Amino acid sequence: MAKARVKVPATAQKGEVIQIKTLIPHKMETGRRKHKKTKKLIPQHIINKFVCKFEGKDVFSADLHAAVAANPYMAFYTRVEKSGTFNFTWTDDKGKTVKASKKIKVS
Amino acid sequence: MIMKSIERRDLMKGLGIGAVAVTAGSFATREVYAKTADADALMRKLSGANSYKSGKVTLKLPEIAENGRTVPLSVSVDSPMTDKSHVKAIHIVSEGNPTPNVISFNLTAASGKAAVSTRVRLGKTQNIQAAAVMNDGSVYLTKQKIKVTIGGCGG
Question: Does the domain spanning A5-106 belong to CATH 2.60.40.10?
Answer without folding.
Answer: yes
